[in-house]
Amino acid sequence: MRNMILAIVAYAILTGFLAILFFTVPRADLGAVIALTLGLAGYDFIRNFREKNNN
Predict the structure, then answer these.
(1) 3 falls in which pLDDT band (50, 70, 90)?
(2) With the CA atoms of 33, 11, 49 and 1 taken in that order, what torsion angle do they form, in degrees rounded to the nearest 10?
(3) 55 to each of 1, 2, 7, 38, 49, how far by Cα in Å?
(4) Residues 22-48: pLDDT tens digits?
(5) pTM of the model
(6) SS3 for 41?
(7) Among positive and negative, which fits the CA dihedral 50, 53, 13, 16?
(8) Number of helices and strands (H, E) in the chain?
(9) What is the radius of gyration, based on Cα positions, of the chain?
């Protein structure tokens, strides 16, 4: 359970950092890269915890 909480906090920090970056430099191509980054990190987060729950 502690690992999941730490992972959620890490994802929130990543999201916050990228949000600050996007609002400081508002460009469409940067927004696409940020969306892709958050999507891949979220996918990895979900996949990692689904695998641990299945074992």
Answers:
(1) confident
(2) 180
(3) 15, 18, 19, 26, 10
(4) 999 989 999 999 999 999 999 999 998
(5) 0.82
(6) helix
(7) positive
(8) 2, 0
(9) 13
User: Tokens standing for 5?
Assistant: 């909480």
What DSSP designation does 25 have? S
**Residue 49: how many CB atoms within 10 A of its CB?**
13
Q: How confident is the model at residue 55 (pLDDT cuts 50, 70, 90)?
A: low
Place of tokens 């927004």: 31
Rounded CA-CA distance 43/50 in Å is 11
Q: Which two tokens stand for residue 39?
A: 């999507």
- Asked if residue 34 lies in contact with residue 21, where contact means CB atoms within 8 angstroms, the answer is yes
